[in-house]
Amino acid sequence: MSTPRPTGTVGDGPRGREVRLTRRYRAAPEAVWAALTESDRLERWIGRWEGDPRTGRISFFMTAEGEDVEPEEYVIRECDPPRRFAADTAVGEQHWHLRFELEHSPEEGMTTLTFAQLLADDDMSNVGPGWEYYLDRLTAAIEGHDVDAIAFDDYYPALKEYYAALA
């Protein structure tokens, strides 16, 4: 694969400054929502969750990084299917606030995903290429392509400078 084109931008979100990435799908918002929230479909491109989301907390296993990963606890802040989702988690010493929104255009038959991470002390040169990689894996999963054909080495370090400049 050639070097992917970066799509991230930085702007003000509901809780502060955030990096945002978008993808467009020729799919109903319910199908994109399922790929983002149903554990078995989520595992096709990034990982799975366990627990009862009705409690507002789940354990997430980022299995795309390997099978022996430690779970991360997610606190669900908003869940409005099939439109908006927001959650907080901690990754090591870093606390992340992630959210996404889906907007459907019936005229175009397209659903737009806006994915965002609240920026704190995060290293944008790592965060941005990582989300580009995972969202392209999501796209492959939605479109029925092989997610393993997408290699992180195509994203990092190639997109590192672009995202470092956004910080």
TrEMBL record:
It comes from Diaminobutyricimonas aerilata. Residues 27-143 form the Activator of Hsp90 ATPase homologue 1/2-like C-terminal domain. InterPro entries: ASHA1/2-like_C, START-like_dom_sf. The lineage of its organism: Bacteria, Bacillati, Actinomycetota, Actinomycetes, Micrococcales. It comes from the Bacteria. This is Uncharacterized protein YndB with AHSA1/START domain. Belongs to the AHA1 family.
